Amino acid sequence: MAEDKDNNDTEQTEEQAGGKKKKLIIFGGIGIVLIITVVLVLWLFGGSSEGESAAAANDMSSAAAPSSSPRPEIGNALYVGMPRPFVFIVPGDSRERTVQIKAQLMVRGEESEELAKKHIPLIEGTLHEVFSSTTADRLKTAEGKGQLRELALTEVRSALEEVTGKPVVEQVLFTSLVMQ
């Protein structure tokens, strides 16, 4: 009987030790997963100080050497929405078509954003001239829309550069284009 009692005590001790090992392994695994998750989140969303310092060094070197093409100010991308959609009539293959375009401007930095907001009437006038000069056939294709966006960007940059001395706008974006 004493042997049976000793065997039962030994088995219970081994089961408790085995249960503790399992718990330790499970909690260790959970801890490792949490640590990896935190590191990945910080890496993805926290940015890299090395990349930022390298970008700053590139900006310094490019500022020292004159650039052949005008570049907007470096900074966060900001979007300036046009207050009203552009509505105009374009010639089509069989009849005239009414077109409505909603546009936004992508600028870099708060100074460029303020300049763009200040000169909205100039920008609207320039965009309306560019948009009105197109045809319905060109607006039916993605290539035609892309060419219109590029022409709009070139004309807006040119108009703003005459007034402000800077190109200000990096992209003209169409947020909506409807043709009837």
Automatic annotation (TrEMBL):
A Pfam family per the record: FliL
The entry's keywords: Cell inner membrane, Cell membrane, Cell projection, Chemotaxis, Cilium, Flagellar rotation, Flagellum, Membrane, Transmembrane, Transmembrane helix
Compartments, as annotated in UniProt: Cell inner membrane; Cell membrane
Membrane spanning stretches: 24-45
Stretch forming the signal peptide: none
Family: Belongs to the FliL family.
PANTHER family per the UniProt record, alphabetical: FLAGELLAR PROTEIN FLIL
Protein purpose: Controls the rotational direction of flagella during chemotaxis.
Record's protein name: Flagellar protein FliL
